[in-house]
Specification:
The protein is mainly beta. It is 13% helix and 43% strand. An eight-stranded antiparallel sheet has the order 4-5-11-10-6-2-3-7. It has a three-stranded antiparallel sheet with strand order 1-12-13, with no helix packed on it. Strands 8-9 form a two-stranded antiparallel sheet.
Length: 172
């Protein structure tokens, strides 16, 4: 088997660390919160569960320093992570570039709860409470408690791999 190996630390390589990390597939999620009657949202390409016990579930995720959504989360204390299904690529594209808040009501969002904006037809939703942010890094690392969660395993997941969107459906 012929495999091409490369190192970003070798002189003359055309790949940088960002290029290599783009080869790691990840789910696509929209992190959203409601503040002042508006929805603030941004895409995140990964989050990690650090405790999977239902009554004490915790996650971590990373946001750029100075993130408007991050500031709203810290100020208001609650938010929702919506894991996108494969038919929601348009939302991934929209929220990866748009940073302006949206007026309520909005057809894409279920805002029955005035605190937790859930996307209609998302694969999973996690309503979370902000706990702590670590700011001593190039980006801010958020730790949060999951208060409620839901999911639909029949919807294929939207994934991001090699800077392209695709879908993944597990064999159940």
């Amino acid at each position: 088997m012929n495999r091409t190996m490369f190192s970003g630390l070798r002189e003359g390589t055309s790949l940088n660390f960002r290029d290599v990390m783009s080869l790691v597939p990840s789910s696509v999620s929209i992190l959203a919160c409601v503040s002042d009657g508006k929805i603030y949202g941004c895409t995140i390409s990964s989050f990690v569960s650090v405790n999977v016990i239902d009554h004490d579930a915790e996650i971590i995720f990373v946001l750029k320093k100075g993130s408007l959504v991050g500031a709203k989360i810290i100020n208001d204390g609650v938010f929702t992570i919506n894991v996108l299904s494969s038919n929601q690529e348009f939302l991934a594209r929209k929220y990866s570039s748009q940073r302006n808040p949206e007026e309520l009501p909005n057809d894409n969002w279920n805002t029955a709860s005035d605190k937790f904006p859930q996307l209609s037809n998302s694969r999973a939703s996690l309503n979370c409470e902000y706990m702590q942010v670590y700011t001593d890094h190039e980006a801010d690392i958020f730790v949060s408690r999951v208060l409620d969660f839901s999911g639909n395993k029949d919807l294929p997941a939207l994934v991001y791999d090699s800077r392209k969107y695709g879908m993944f459906m597990s064999n159940q």
